[in-house]
Amino acid sequence: MKIKKVLSIFLAGCMLAAALTGCGKNETLSESVLVDGNTMISKEPIELSAFMDSSKEGDGQWQLLKEAYKMTNVNVVPTLSKSNTEFNQTFSLMIASGNIPDIVQTYKPSQFCELAMEGAFVALNDYFDTHLVHFKQFLSENPDVKKEITASDGNIYYIPFIPGGDLSQGWFVRQDWLDKLGLKAPTNAEEMYTVLKAMKTQDPNGNGLADEVPYFETEKGANLFPLWGARQSFYVENGEVKYGKLEDEFVPAIKNIIKWYEEGLLDPEIVTRSTNGRDTLLGNNIGGMTNDWFGSTARYNEKLAEAIPGFNFCAFAPPCGIQLSKRPPASGYGWGVSASSEYLNEALLFLDFFFTEEGNRLINYGVEGLHYDMVDGKPTFKAELVAQPNFQKQLTDFGVQVGVGYKQDYEYEKQWLNDIALEGLAMYEEGDWVVEQMSPNLSLKLNSVELEEYNSLYTQVTTYDTEMYQKWILGAEDFDQTYPKFKKEVKKLGYDRLMELMQLAYDRYNGKK
Ligand code: CA
Questions:
Q1: What is the DSSP track for 15-47?
Q2: Which of 259, 238, 166, 173 is nearest to 472 (CA)?
Q3: How far apart are alpha carbons 250 and 230 in whole angstroms?
Q4: How far apart are the CA of 443 and the centre of ligand 1, in A?
Q5: In angstroms, what is the span from residue 208 Cα to ligand 1's centroid?
Q6: Nearest to residue 214, comparing CAs of 202, 200, 204, 193?
Q7: Is the whole model's pTM more than 0.90, yes or no?
Q8: What is the dihedral of CA 426, 172, 440, 409, to 10 degrees?
Q9: Cα 144 from chain centroid?
Q10: Which residues surround ligand 1, an ion (CB under 5 A)?
């Protein structure tokens, strides 16, 4: 999706005109910085348009934006108020129309930055000293975030969602089943096999049927590969980008996984399972073990306490010695500002607002008195709100803790985590099992020619990869017979060049090239 050159020139003209006239129909209170303690941006109330995902409840608008309006005099009205499932498609249509709202959310930063380089969105770093002083300050204190979001031309075009804390996922097991079976949480592949086999054959849910689904996850089995020192896909090790499926360790790993699948130890839908699989498998008292988010997974203990007496799903140390998932310093989504905005000053200041103390508290905790109270100088969620099973959903429907540009306060999460999740997190923090991750923003480091080639090769290789992997696991193709052909085919599809581009991006990411 490319903007026509003519449009780019037009946009550049608008920007210049805006800069010369001080921009916008209305006067910003201050031509430059947002002052601490006074978050008012505009003298008169003004309305800005925005393209973003929004609430699925009520009128479809995040109430948070109305609260931000009270605090800034800037009323941001999103034009997209449907589900986010078609976000990418709607995004492309919006760009193609040439009618770009003042503020635009993105889930694909490489695409967003490319469009920015063609003139659609402003380089935020041009406004660091004048409009985005709080964000600039944040970046100077967090150089790892800056490294993540800097585009191939050295500019910064979007403000990302910055997750709080490093840890996200861990291993969970039905401890009550282990107790019943007289087993301990597994610490290696062999013990894991023993545990899963016992769950399948010894009826721990006690209904007389072999209906247990011993292991399930939403990442197609990726978390199992390290049990044999292998990886399922692309990864980084000692500064080198590798592709798990062509490494020696892959063969024994997948052979075991296929065997486990055949023996019914893995979820029959392991290659297609989505997040709501957890609800079904745990809710039906058949799921035994998984690797998933600490907070939400630990919550099943409360949700299912009445329905399944004795239900005890708790975290255990990684049986493979490592944990693959880690939160990146900055995520691959956030928001930026249209270069054609008539309210460039206000739009930039509005984004900076979420890096002020007041704005950051609003987007992390919501509204004082409604969502939280100040206790010992700290925003503290109301106990009755946290106790509700849909607590998180209530927050996101309001617009708190959503996918736009701000720094997530880790305290937010700690406040609603139950003891099982907190114990799990503490164990993982202590264990130091999290390994280096591929940045979700690697492709930002490629220029437009490289990016086009990268995207095309990546799609070709991964489409074939996914297809063959599914066939092997599900038994539609024999692994031994088809693996040699697979190795040749990925090369034919441009695997070598893809790895070269990934390595190049990774080296640039680390400031090497
Ligand atoms: Ca059973």
A1: HHHHHHHTSSSS-BSSSSPPBTTB---BSS-EE
A2: 259
A3: 5
A4: 46
A5: 5
A6: 200
A7: no
A8: -40
A9: 17
A10: 203, 205, 207, 209, 211
In Å, how far are 126, 223, 250, 488 from 230, measured between CA atoms? Answer: 44, 10, 5, 20
pLDDT of 393 reads 86
Structure tokens at 93: 């249509």
Mean pLDDT over residues 186-197, rounded?
98
In a 13 Å sphere around the CA of 131, the CA atoms on its Cβ side amount to 22
State the Cα–Cα distance between residues 167 and 87, nearest whole angstrom.
27
Residue 273 CA to ligand 1 center (angstroms) comes to 21
Write the DSSP symbol of residue 408.
P
CA of 308 to the centre of ligand 1 (A): 13
d(CA 316, CA 332): 29
* Of 381, 349, 377, the residue nearest 364 (C-alpha): 381
Strand positions, DSSP E, 276-397: 287-293, 313-316, 334-337, 372-375, 378-381
What are the tokens at 403?
A: 């996918």
Distance 278 CA to ligand 1 centre (A): 17
pLDDT digits (tens, 9 = 90+) for 7-47: 443 444 444 444 444 444 456 665 557 877 789 999 899 99
Give the span between the Cα atoms of 203 and 209, in whole angstroms: 7
Strands ordered across the beta sheet of 334-337: 74-78, 46-51, 103-106, 334-337, 159-162, 406-407
* 182 CA to centre of ligand 1 in angstroms: 16
Give the distance (Å) from ligand 1 centre to CA of residue 293.
26
The CA-to-CA distance between both ends of the chain, in Å, stands at 28
Q: Which helix (H) or strand (E) holds 398?
A: helix 391-398
CA of 432 to the centre of ligand 1 (A): 36
